[in-house]
Amino acid sequence: MGGPAFLALPAVSVGVGLLLAGVTLIVAVAARRFGWASKPSTGAASTDSGVDSDTDSSVAPPSSVTGLDDEEAFVVDLLHSTGGRLQQSAIVEASDWSKSKVSRLLSRMERDGLVEKVSVGRENVVLLTLDDP
Length: 133
Prior knowledge:
Layout: H1 8-34, H2 70-81, E1 85-87, H3 88-95, H4 99-111, E2 115-120, E3 123-128
Antiparallel strand pairs: 1-3, 2-3
Helix pairs in contact: 1-3
């Protein structure tokens, strides 16, 4: 017959992961097209904006990260807006940059401790880490 049931668990996990990645991709593309995810503003962050900013401390907001160039800040903001996890191809789509440019940028950001790239099948999932350099 089919073999032990525990062998099906990795297949289910991969299927659920791919489903979540697909939904994330759709959200990222919609965010880019409708202007929900944009480059972070260059203005100083205000603590009296009326927004309760310290309710979610799981991932630091992009405005708290200093020393980033515009491209890095865009990626950090995009990842932050999607919960800190996104497929590399979604970053390519959202940024309109080439695959190789995104790959080089993410490799540099991974080296600097800002993100982590995790290989899932033939795709990379990018995780926002924001380690202190």
